[in-house]
């Protein structure tokens, strides 16, 4: 039996195992073990080849600059969520914009964007907005589909607007730094937010009954108080966001160091708002440890999988296939997007990043997609993964909203409400595809000419 | 049961220290300490998250299956995948960790000794194996209708955002 055939069977078996619901991490490991043994029996693999695993694990985890950023940004987001900072923000902005037609929807987009820039995690944003904004919107006769759609879509921006967990994970598989990816994703992320806001306003004018104004009677503060309150809640997080992103783009610090600044900053903010408690910090640290362990466990197992897959020449085979797609660079880019979109309907971003990104990268490099263009490619993948977050029936964001939605909002509303926003994300994806400058311009501004060289060096190492 | 609670508490402390250590990026040793603390979070966390059923599953089919079928999937999977994985992990890690300790390997930039963290990597597989065995006992009890004997932790929805 040829090794290539084994590699194909290996991939197919792996897909069957993860579809059975067995944990993804151990599915990687199990498939790797079984097919390694088959490779020993039918091919020329030897047990000695496994020894390199240890150094790979060590290099990918203990001495890995990229993933060091994960715990810091997750911690920062968890503090924002658990300390009630996000709630204050939403309540105030809601009061400010609610009395306009469609204003509550725009307020959700605005707060979603701001929280997205402050955290890298979706759950916090979606849950807070689902708990606070959704009941208000439903009470004042917003269309439940529009209300839930705008909440999941805006909350999910957290995965595109830097700092984001998706971008950090993607950076691990690409010859790019986290900073470059962050710079590249900023404009497309804000662009999506603007598209969502415009859509909400258009709906409010075309179908006023779907997004009515909220009576001013709800307002419990005077105009002056409200203005003061707005400044008080918006400025400090905004400051933190600029401090964190500014320090990365300015080249002063690496992403993980900026993450540390953000994490400590979030704690200081929570002290300033008098919502600080040790319990909050402990909870935040717990969920941070959970997520870090989860991501790294998948990394350990997928490293093993990739090792065996490569020994069976699977990587070369896939690269050949991808390079055989007609249409050169564009054929590959479009095919990659379609593949990720289709996978995104049933899989989540972690699975997709760990399974397909390592397969795409060699083909992309062979087609001359390097430096800022690689950032562009990665940002398209990130927008595509964003669609996966809100694609029914298994998008993460939908689950989060379901868990906190009031009884008037049916699950089917949430699912149907997500569809127009998926279409808007698709529109954003096409815009980014047609205008690579939307990504590369900012990357060039911050990382200049040396970016491709640095990328190459990293690719070689 | 493995003292996973202790590990969890450890994580909390470590996270803290990690973020404060990050503030002083002056010497390679302190920088590396940050890496080591960060590594301890997940190396010790592997067994911990297994105990608490925190994992990523593709569950659009799995979630609708009866408990016994889910238990079968995990039970068989752990025998075929998880336990051999732990054994292979230990098999490749322990000799190399021992070697590192024996020669007193230092990190190249004059930081901390490499031995302890490599040993921890090896030990993380041992902890994971112990927790996997405890999972198997729990699943066996479920499969033989003795689930009243074990503490059943609900399968949580995936927690990554």
Structure keywords:
heterodimer; A: 461 residues; mainly alpha; disordered C terminus; B: 161 residues; disordered N terminus
What radius of gyration of chain B results from the CA coordinates?
Answer: 19 Å
Category from helices, strands and their pairing of chain B = mainly alpha
Shape of chain B: elongated
- Sum up the overall morphology of chain A in one term: globular
Number of helices of chain B: 4
Major interchain interface with per-chain residue totals: A-B, 73 and 59 residues
Compute the CA-based radius of gyration of chain A: 23 Å
Estimate the helix proportion of chain A, in percent: over 70%
Output the number of helix runs of chain A: 21
In terms of per-residue confidence, which ranges of chain B show pLDDT below 50 for 5 or more consecutive residues? 1-8, 153-161
Low-confidence stretches of chain A: 451-461
Number of strands of chain B: 0
What is the averaged pLDDT score of chain B? Answer: 75
Terminus-to-terminus distance of chain A: 34 Å
Largest sheet of chain B: none
The H-and-E topology of chain B, N to C, reads as HHHH
Number of separate strands of chain A: 0
Could you explain the architecture of this structure?
The complex is a heterodimer of chains A (461) and B (161). Chain A has 461 residues and is mainly α. Helix content of chain A is 78%, strand content 0%. Chain A is globular. The longest helix of chain B is centred in the middle third of the chain and has 36 residues. Chain B starts with a helix and ends in an 18-residue tail after the last helix. The N terminus and C terminus of chain B are likely disordered.
Q: What is the topology?
A:
The complex is a heterodimer of chains A (461) and B (161).
Chain A: H1 3-19, H2 24-42, H3 52-62, H4 69-82, H5 85-97, H6 103-118, H7 122-139, H8 144-156, H9 165-173, H10 178-206, H11 223-249, H12 255-272, H13 278-311, H14 314-323, H15 328-346, H16 349-366, H17 371-390, H18 396-404, H19 411-434, H20 437-447, H21 450-460
Chain B: H1 4-21, H2 28-51, H3 67-102, H4 115-143
Helix pairs in contact in B: 1-2, 2-4, 3-4
């Amino acid at each position: 039996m040829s090794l290539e055939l084994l590699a194909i069977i290996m991939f197919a078996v792996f897909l069957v195992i993860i579809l059975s619901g067995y944990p993804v991490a151990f599915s990687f490991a199990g498939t790797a073990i079984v097919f390694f043994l088959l490779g020993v029996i039918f091919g020329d693999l030897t047990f000695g080849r496994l020894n390199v695993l240890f150094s790979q694990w060590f290099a990918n985890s203990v001495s890995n600059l990229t993933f060091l950023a994960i715990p810091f940004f997750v911690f920062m987001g968890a503090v924002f969520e658990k300390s009630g900072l996000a709630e204050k923000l939403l309540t105030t902005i809601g009061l400010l914009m609610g009395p306009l037609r469609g204003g509550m929807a725009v307020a959700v987009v605005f707060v979603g964007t701001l929280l997205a820039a402050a955290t890298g995690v979706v759950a916090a944003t979606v849950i807070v907005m689902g708990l606070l904004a959704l009941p208000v919107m439903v009470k004042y006769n917003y269309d439940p589909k529009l209300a839930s759609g705008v909440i999941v879509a805006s909350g999910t921006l957290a995965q595109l607007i830097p700092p984001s967990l998706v971008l950090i994970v993607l950076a691990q598989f690409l010859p790019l730094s986290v900073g470059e990816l962050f710079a590249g994703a900023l404009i497309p992320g804000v662009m999506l937010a603007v598209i969502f806001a415009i859509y909400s306003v258009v709906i409010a004018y075309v179908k006023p009954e779907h997004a009515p104004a909220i009576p001013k009677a709800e307002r419990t503060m005077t105009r002056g108080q409200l203005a003061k309150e707005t400044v008080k809640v918006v400025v400090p997080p905004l400051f933190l966001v600029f401090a964190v992103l500014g320090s990365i783009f300015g080249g002063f610090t690496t992403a993980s160091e900026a993450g540390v600044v953000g994490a400590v900053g979030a704690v200081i903010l929570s002290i300033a708002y008098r919502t600080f408690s040790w319990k909050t910090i402990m909870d935040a640290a717990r969920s941070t440890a959970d997520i870090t362990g989860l991501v790294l466990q998948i990394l350990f197992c997928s490293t093993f999988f990739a090792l065996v897959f490569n020994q069976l020449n699977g990587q070369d085979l896939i690269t050949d296939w991808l390079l055989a797609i007609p249409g050169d660079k564009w054929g590959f880019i479009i095919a990659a997007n379609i593949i990720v979109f289709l996978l995104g309907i049933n899989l989540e971003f972690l699975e997709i990043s760990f399974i397909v990104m390592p397969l795409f990268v060699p083909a992309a490099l062979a087609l001359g997609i390097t430096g800022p263009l690689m950032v562009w490619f990665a940002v398209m993948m990130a927008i595509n993964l964003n669609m996966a977050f809100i694609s029914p029936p298994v998008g993460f964001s939908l689950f989060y909203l379901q868990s906190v939605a009031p009884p008037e909002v049916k699950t089917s509303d949430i699912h149907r409400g997500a569809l127009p926003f998926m279409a808007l994300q698709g529109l954003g994806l096409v815009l980014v595809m047609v205008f690579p400058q939307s990504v590369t311009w900012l990357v060039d501004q911050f990382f200049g000419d040396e970016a491709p060289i640095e990328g190459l060096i990293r690719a070689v190492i | 049961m493995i003292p996973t609670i202790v590990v969890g508490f450890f994580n909390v402390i470590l996270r803290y220290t990690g973020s404060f250590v990050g503030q002083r990026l002056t010497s390679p040793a302190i920088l590396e300490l940050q890496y080591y603390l960060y590594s301890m979070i997940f190396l010790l966390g592997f067994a911990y998250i297994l105990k608490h059923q925190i994992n990523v599953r593709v569950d659009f089919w799995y979630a609708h299956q009866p408990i016994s079928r889910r238990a079968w999937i995990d039970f068989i999977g752990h025998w075929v995948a998880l336990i051999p994985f732990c054994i292979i992990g230990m098999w490749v890690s322990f000799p190399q960790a021992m070697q590192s300790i024996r020669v007193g390997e230092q990190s190249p930039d004059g930081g901390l000794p490499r031995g302890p963290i490599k040993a921890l990597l090896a030990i993380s597989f041992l902890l994971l194996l112990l927790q996997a065995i405890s999972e198997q006992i729990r699943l066996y009890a479920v499969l033989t209708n003795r689930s009243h004997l074990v503490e059943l932790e609900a399968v949580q929805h995936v927690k990554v955002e």
